[in-house]
Design goal:
Largest sheet: 7 strands, mixed
Number of strands: 7
Helix content: 25-40%
Number of helices: 4
Order of helices and strands: HEHHEEHEEEE
Low-confidence stretches: 3-18
Mean pLDDT: 89
Structural class: alpha/beta
Distance between the termini: 33 Å
Length: 153
Amino acid sequence: MRNLFILSIIFLCWNSSQAQTFVGKQKHINQILDNTRKFSEYVMKSDYEGIANCYTSDAKIFPNNTKILTGRDSIISYWALPEGVGTLFHKITQSEIRINGNEAYDYGYYEGKTKYADGRESSWQGKYVIVWRREKGVWKIYLDIWNKVPLKS
C-alpha cells in the first residue's frame, strides 16, 4: 500500500511537470514569462499604452469574430474598455514556449473576469497563440490570436 502511494505521488509530480514545455535560453524564456505577466497587469489596470508597448511596431492581433487589426492605434482601440467597465482578473498560462533565434512562439490558455458598470461580473477563458519577436533586445508580441472556450464547470 505504501509503495502504491509513493508511486502515485511520483506519477502526479511527473505528470504535472510535463504540462509545460519551454525550449530556448532560460533568460529569453524568463523575459517572455515576465512580459506576459506585465501584459496581464496592464490589462487589469486598463493601461492601454502599457498594453500597446507589449506589441511590436508592426504587430497584428486576431480577435475572435473580427478582422485582423494592425498597428498601435488599432490595438489600443481594441483593448480600450467602455467607461465603467474593468478587468478584475487576467491570467495567461503558457503550455509551450519555443524560441528560434529572434522569434518565438507560445500557446496556452487565458482566463479572466470583467466587471460591468451595473455591477455584474462575468468570467471567461480561452486559448491563444502568440508569435514573439525581439525588437532592440526586448521580446514583444508580433502576432496575437485567441478565442474563447466554454467555462469549466
